[in-house]
Amino acid sequence: MIALPSVAIMIAAHNAAATIGRAVRSALAEPEISEVIVVDDASTDDTTACAFAANDGSGRLKILTQSQNRGPSAARNRALLESAAMWIGVLDADDFFLPGRIKHLLDYVDRADFIGDDIGRVPEDAIDGPRSSLLGGSLTEPRAIAFTEFVSSNVTNRKRPRGELGFLKPLMRRAFLDAHNLRYNESLRLGEDYELYTRALALGARLMIVPAQGYVSVMRPNSLSGLHSIDDLLRLRDCDLALSRMPGLSFEDKMALRQHYLSVDGRLQWRLLIEAVKKRDARAARATFMRPWPVPFYLATQLAEQIFLRASKKLGKSA
């Protein structure tokens, strides 16, 4: 009998007492997983206790605690130090696996260094309800993804449904990570997955995506992933500058990074514009429009939407 490769699942958790038990139980239910490593990132609630309560007694659960909140990248890097498993995966503390996910992903270990599957999404208040697909059901068979396509998928585009491949949670070949000293960028609290996968692809990683195998993303209104600061957006935008300096990139690769940079810059400038308006700082407000195209167009569109919504609200009240 051929031995299955070892698999470690990393769960970075901060104030996740309400959901961490579900995440841990779903990972431990996968017999192919040899380790589940929870890193409590300086929570102020009962995250650690709730994680312990989900232990199945198999000896596969390890719980680490951070003395200071350092973000998901630092938490995952610590988990990487604690594991020597051949394959590494990520599970967000809000999310969970359906039975059989890991077994099905391991069918592709001889074909890729990163193996990701489409994600099913559900609201927290309808956890057993119908799931929407991150990729919109467009993925019907396994296929390889190259650098340009991966980066371009993460560019905001109102004319197409969302399908950001940077949101995927693939299994990652440990040997590839170690050979290239690849770890999460700890300066990022937003887009850390996108940045790591992009660097890996620039270094020659083989990324394969397959139809949904059972990763369920739970959408919560107070999720940490939705609380982006101006600094978070700034760091995500500027990571594209560093990525564009990596050797061996084609013109198309660099253009995709440029488009992603401008896409994030639009979101950043919108936040800066809001702050400028609140402070009645006309100079700072004007500066947000002095960015390369299409950022000014994005800002104008956002303003038009806000004006329309406010006008509609007033009409509704007066009716």
Please provide a written account of the structure.
The longest helix is centred in the last third of the chain and has 28 residues, at 251-278. 41% of the residues lie in helices and 17% in strands. With 319 residues, the chain is an alpha/beta fold. It has two domains: 7-226, Spore Coat Polysaccharide Biosynthesis Protein SpsA, Chain A (Alpha-Beta Complex), CATH 3.90.550.10; 230-318, no CATH class. Strands 1, 2, 3, 4, 5, 6, 7, 8, 9 and 10 form a ten-stranded mixed sheet that branches. α5 (147-153) runs parallel beside α9. The radius of gyration is 21 Å and the shape is globular. The model has no long low-confidence stretch (mean pLDDT 93).
Count of helix runs: 11
CATH class categorisation of the largest domain? Alpha Beta
CATH homologous superfamily of the largest domain, by name?
Answer: Spore Coat Polysaccharide Biosynthesis Protein SpsA, Chain A
Roughly what is the average pLDDT, rounded to an integer? 93
Gyration radius over CA: 21 Å
What is the SS-derived class? alpha/beta
Number of DSSP-assigned strands: 10
| Oligomeric state, counting identical vs distinct chains | single chain
Q: Which overall shape is indicated by the principal axes computed on the Cα atoms?
A: globular
CATH architecture of the largest domain: Alpha-Beta Complex
What is the percent of helical residues? 40-55%
